[in-house]
Amino acid sequence: CGHLTGFRDKDRKMLTFDPSSEFLISDREQIQYKYCKNNEFRVCNWVIERDDPDDFCNACQLNRTIPDLSDLQNFDHWRNLEVAKHRLIYQLQKIGLAIPSKMKVDDGLCFDFVAQRNDSNILTGHANGVITILLREADSVKREQMRKQFREPYRTLVGHLRHEVGHYFWERLVANNPNFLEEFRIIFGNEQRDYAQALKTYYEQGPINNWQDSFISKYATSHPWEDWAESWAHYLHVMDMVETAYFFGLNVTPIDIEEGMKAKASFDPYAIEDFDIIVETCVPLSFAVNSINRAMGVPDVYPFVITPGVIKKMKFIHQLLWPKRR
């Protein structure tokens, strides 16, 4: 129809605008908006009300460092990172989590998207609310090389971001809550274990035997903090997969296969308190999509097995987050 579109994050709605108007005036509400300033780089389609003093949307306000955009390669990598980051922020907002900017409050969150260059001490990770992602992770060739180097079944930008933000929310939601911390230690183990030594042991000796029974990935076995971050990331994977299936009205009704492999994505997972319903829907969906990928000769979209031990950890996260739904 030729209309402009923009995403309003406060209620997660796509708005349309008359392209012939001097201002962005929503067709339905006749409210004036402006695009996030990063729209000029075509990396953000979020809108904010025209009289808002901020020029950046709630997602882009979290950027503390972006790469030198005079380098066209950097621009492409940054655009890939922004796509993944906006998906993450959408999801965290839908859960109901507060995401204050670290540039405004000490316990807030921010992102550094940086090139490594000559400083080998800069690594992808999280520290005190700062999530650092190296630009090379946005290069699909280099990312695949690193995936093979670390013998990982899966390595994506959205996966990185979901993992690292898990560390941030552990500090915000668990670390200072005695009740949650006690239950966390029962389920994940004692995080007071020496972290550096635990990682050293993991890289030297590998994962424990039969790790698949209780962990979603090999790396999750290294330390309770990493188990939490991995479980958190996969919880977000599961929720996003089921939500996407719901919006597309996907059902899985395989021929001549047991009842347990059927699924009907007829609900928004963020509105469901019982996590068993969510995961029982996700497993057949992921199996079906993995099979379609194999038919096309490409890797599985979700190459993981969600065991009862892993479900227990995801349930803890779901129950922790449920009261925050809005």
Overall description:
The chain is an alpha+beta fold and about 325 residues long. About 40% of the residues lie in helices and about 10% in strands. The protein is built from eight helices and eleven strands. The two termini are about 35 Å apart. The model has no long low-confidence stretch (mean pLDDT about 95).
Quick tags:
three-stranded antiparallel sheet; 11 strands; globular; alpha+beta; 8 helices; 326 residues; single chain; 3 domains
Rg, Cα atoms, Å:
21 Å
Series of H and E elements: EEEEEEHEEEHHHHHEEHH
| Measured distance between first and last alpha carbons | 33 Å
Shape: globular
On the 0-100 scale, what is the average pLDDT? 94
Number of strands: 11
The helix content is: 40-55%
What is the percentage of strand-forming residues? 5-15%
Q: Going across the major beta sheet, what is the strand order?
A: 6-7-9-8
Largest sheet data? 4 strands, mixed
Count of structural domains: 3
Strand pairing plus helix content: what structural class?
Answer: alpha+beta
Helix segment count?
A: 8
Low-confidence stretches: none
